[in-house]
Amino acid sequence: MQIKAPRGTYDILPPDTGKWQHVEAILKETAENFGYREIRTPIFEHTELFERGVGTSTDIVTKEMYTFRDKSSRSLTLRPENTASCARALIEHSIYSGILPAKWYYIGPMFRYDRPQTGRYRQFHQFGVEAFGSNNPYLDAEVIILLVEVLKRLGLNDYELHINSVACPRCREVYRKKLVEHIAPVKDKLCSDCQTRYEQNPLRVLDCKEDACHRAIAGYPTLFEHLCHDCARHYATVKEALKASHIVFQHDDNLVRGLDYYTNTAFEIHIPGIGAQSAVGGGGRYNGLVAECGGPDLPGIGFAMGIERLLLAVDTLAGGEANESKTDVFISIMNDAYEQQALELLTRLRLAGIRAEKDYMGRSGRAQMKYADKLGARLAIIIGEEEIAKGFYTLRDMRGKEQAKIGGQDIINSVKHRLATA
Ligand code: AMP
Fold it and tell me: Closest Cα partner for 211 from 189, 187, 181, 195?
């Protein structure tokens, strides 16, 4: 048996879990401030949901899904992203006929069979938001402002926000034909992935990472030049709203989401300085998605951020603030005979909301004090022969080392008072 987590997966151990809790608390608080409420969907779904909801020509569906058959031969897939699941939940629970927009956020693991490297894993975590039911461009702006606000609250002020409009299916179809005409003569110069993209989904040639492909298609017509009146107005309003909110962004002709149900606003946010995987989040409008998943024609917009990359950025650029839980009080016993008294006091302290700890390894008195220091305890309560005989506790300040004798009735209040004033 191999004692190693599967490739592309890893454990999160204390004290690192404290960092995760800190980041997750900020993500949740920001989303709630913006009026988004939490949704939790299953880790696996019917494979078909992702084929329809992510798109059969995408890398995710063609190469990266963890798909398996259960004992009843159903094809199931570990979720590679969460937007399709949210659309499924919206339809299944008829949320679309309730109060709109439905504004949701989620935090949880996603699974993609990708080549692991720093910032890229096979099980990774995303924070995302989805707003269903409105095509108002100010909602697009709200979602982007939320994305930026998350970074600000994490102390990440150095980011690059790219935005584009991927149009509506009608004006995009006109554009697609022009793009195909432009690429056709240079098709053979494209990388093998782009040759396939050219056949299946030519817009995706634009976001290829290979320089050679970009050189080959230089001078290509842009989507921006082909927006219909409504799409152009929608995009202009989003940009004005962002400017008015002092959000710095740049228009990016190469940013495309080449699926029919992605519409209008698309955006991506990068943090330079965290390595090759600098994209921390991306999203856009998907007005055709709910219908594609079998629901009514309901618009939607959202984004997803990679939490591993946020943590990497916080660690390398913002000083890696941790939220490590420290012990408040350590109970030290001078003799095994006082285990029961220590346990009872421990419970009283904990029920009063105080983080209390004792030794379980048979350490000597001195070793218990060293251990208390390691745990970060601010106070120690010593139970020895004299304390038991006379019915008091010795309360020690771990920093100043001064000690006081405290009666059994007063110990909880004394500890609370000292913690509050220390
Ligand atoms: P996507 O769902 O592909 O638009 O990705 C949204 C965000 O999730 C990206 O910007 C990354 O921050 C993060 N992400 C995507 N794939 C991975 C992965 N394999 N490992 C870690 N983070 C990822």
Answer: 189
